[in-house]
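Data availability (excerpt). All sequences and predicted token strings are deposited with the supplementary files. A representative entry, Flagellar biosynthesis protein FlhF, is shown inline so that the format can be inspected without opening the archive.
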Amino acid sequence: MSAQRFIGANSRDAMNQVRFALGEDALILSSRMTDAGVEIMAQADTPPAPAPQRPTPDLAALSERLLGEIEDMRQLIHTRAQPSPLLKWLLDAGFSASLSTQLLGHNPPQSPDATPARLKAWLAQRIDSQLNQLADEADLFNAPTVIAVVGPTGVGKTTTTAKLAARYVMRHGPGDVALVATDSFRIGAHEQLKIYAQLLGVELHALAPDAPLGPLLGRLADKRLVIIDTVGTSQRDRRLVTHIQQLGNSGRAVRLMLVLNAASHGDTLDDVLHTYRDAAHTAGCRLDDCIVSKCDEAARLGPVLDSLIRHGLRLNYLSAGQRVPEDLQLPGASDFLQQALDVSLPSRFASAPAPSAGPHLDALVRGLLGQRKALLALCASLAVHIDGFASLMALQPDACLSEPTPCALLAITTRSSLRVVHEGERQRLGNLAGRGEAFGIRELRYRNHHARLTLRHLPVELNDAARRAWFGTVQDSHSGQHLGHRYWLAEDQRDLNEQAAELVQALKHEELVSLTAHGSARLLNLHPDLPGELRRSLANSLASAALRLTHANEDWAFQARAQLLGLLPKKPRGHAREILDGLLYVSVVMSSL
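Structure token line:
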């Protein structure tokens, strides 16, 4: 018997495939790590034919095989000692070990369609759910506002001031804008801002760094937007608190907006955030907003995003160049998350994962807020792709999904032991499978596998009526693992292609009955007051939604499955029942939120 190849996510998974296909007594020929997982070569344990004389072993070949097995074992041990691929991805992107561990939580389930692009999108969604971002400029510009652009020297405050003014002018015109320059230390700073003010047609006022701000702001009370370009102050400068106090004592509410250099080291960013926030607190001010500058100069965006998430600052804009105002973008209009997760050039400074130390309160709060944001995005996505999903999550009586019910062929799925008549002889249906005419292969998702259904058909008779017997063999498309046989009987007069299409649908939906029963039992526990008919209808719709998610191959479906399965307490395998549990979990959590 020829050897067969099995690939699993880990050694246990691969060995389970071997036992399923070849039995407990299978002979293991080799085992090694590959990019796809653990690969095992095995064959059924058939005793070899007796030989008159045992040949002398080839010592060179034996030595080479042993050395190969030792190297495979060394690689396996080395791989097990490494952090998970997703954790390593985040570390290579510049995120800290502590936040990376929190971001991952439950890894997405092992799935045959978990491509690098989809895993990258999953990681981006996890980061997006934790990152506070400005969604609409109206939150900044619609009400009269005084903004003070603060930050260390050289981070781009003056250019950022001009960009902010330009964005306001584009929306509302120049009449209601005034710029204030307080940076008299840096040569040319005032002249640079003066040129921008002339190009934009807005007022510019110069003020010494130690001069009181209140009188000037009083004269500018009619302006809806005043932007103050402050003097650059190092986080180690003792005058930092004094400068922030001058802004806080101006007589008007001043919104501090910290500019952070994306190209800075993570420890430096952390130091800046700590010091500026402490200074703002000491001066009786709040520092909740930031702009990330020099994104085009940063090799990694991970460190700055890591700092923003941990400190809870809102990301208002990203700056990536000198053009005014083109190079200032809202987070939602930028691909910064994709840029942040680009690890095509691995970092030489990635840190090793730190041992987990219990979560702090701020991490728990971030997790809850991020969970709410992620669940809202998940429900919005499912509402777009699954008709009636919003009503279903609200457990409304009129909730009904436009999901096709199992086709009529489900009623005539049968057993191999059924006796039919073929060519005048009465035989078991299973014995006729080899005589069937081949009818091609259909690709589908089946019980969390990329599977192929090989079809054969044969004319038979049952109770003196002409029928078409169909024989289906289901195999995993990647490993070739046998997943089962199916037998159907259909009316012989119907078009064969239509019958084959319905068979694929029947195979996809054969779980619907058991899933509906499972969902009904769960709903009875969660909502004991629901009328029985409504409960069964909702359970059927939830089961249909779970099956649709299980079978869909699109990117949105992969992201939805990953999020739903990540909500479960135990490590899931991606089965439809687990997806159904995730949908029920979402319905309960969203109603609580």
